[in-house]
């Protein structure tokens, strides 16, 4: 091969190599795609009313329905503030309930009777030993429950409106102090209602702006000595409150 032929071959090989490198594309390494962090919200308690329920409307109706007084009690033993239990809704079409406005004292009875600040806790509740830290329940004056057995069953369903929300519970304990007072619920209910407040055995919610609606003939299934079926409670609660909402024209 002549000198010029050899030079031509070398030139051709060089061009081929350059072309090969030109068509081989190097892609940047893949990077993971990050989405912005989302705020984490505490889940709603599983005994909170369904979002479709008109809580504000029912609350207003509770405050405005006060023609049939069933009984009256102080909200605190050392206060002159008296609140009444009303029976305006006892005979509504398809649903029956009585209601009142009160504060919210904290009940710590049951297995966890020694909760912080609790000075008079008992190991049992009126119909068993409900755990106040795990069971949503409310308390009624003993005399009222004794005199109104025709409209109130043990462990009856209740709806409590507090801080703009509605929660369900059962009538699980009685107040037999002297004098008997009204407006009390388990510490679980108190902390669900007022999560930004200091709620313990000695600190409740002092304002009488909490609505208590009691469906006295309705008892959720699954109530045990120390626990309840919360899913059954919520199902019955949503059903009864929607009937009440409809009966009130809301």
From TrEMBL:
Chief location category: secreted
Q: By its UniProt entry, which Pfam families does this protein fall under?
A: Glyco_hydro_75 (PF07335)
Query: Signal among the record's keywords?
Result: yes
Tell me the first and last residues of the signal peptide. Answer: 1-22
Any one GO BP annotation for this protein: polysaccharide catabolic process
* Location of this chain's protein in the cell: Secreted
Identify the InterPro entries for this entry.
Answer: Chitosanase_fungal
Molecular function via GO: chitosanase activity
Q: Name one GO cellular component term.
A: extracellular region
Keywords linked to the UniProt accession: Carbohydrate metabolism, Glycosidase, Hydrolase, Polysaccharide degradation, Secreted, Signal
EC number(s) on record?
A: 3.2.1.132
Keyword Lipid metabolism listed? The answer is no
Describe the reaction catalysed, as an equation.
Endohydrolysis of beta-(1->4)-linkages between D-glucosamine residues in a partly acetylated chitosan
Return the broad EC class: hydrolase
Question: Main role?
Answer: Chitosanase catalyzing the endo-type cleavage of chitosan, the deacylated form of chitin. Chitosanase may be crucial in the degradation of the deacetylated portion of chitin in the fungal cell wall.
**Family statement drawn from the similarity comment of this UniProt entry:** Belongs to the glycosyl hydrolase 75 family.
Record-given protein name: Endo-chitosanase
Q: Which organism is it from?
A: Mycena citricolor
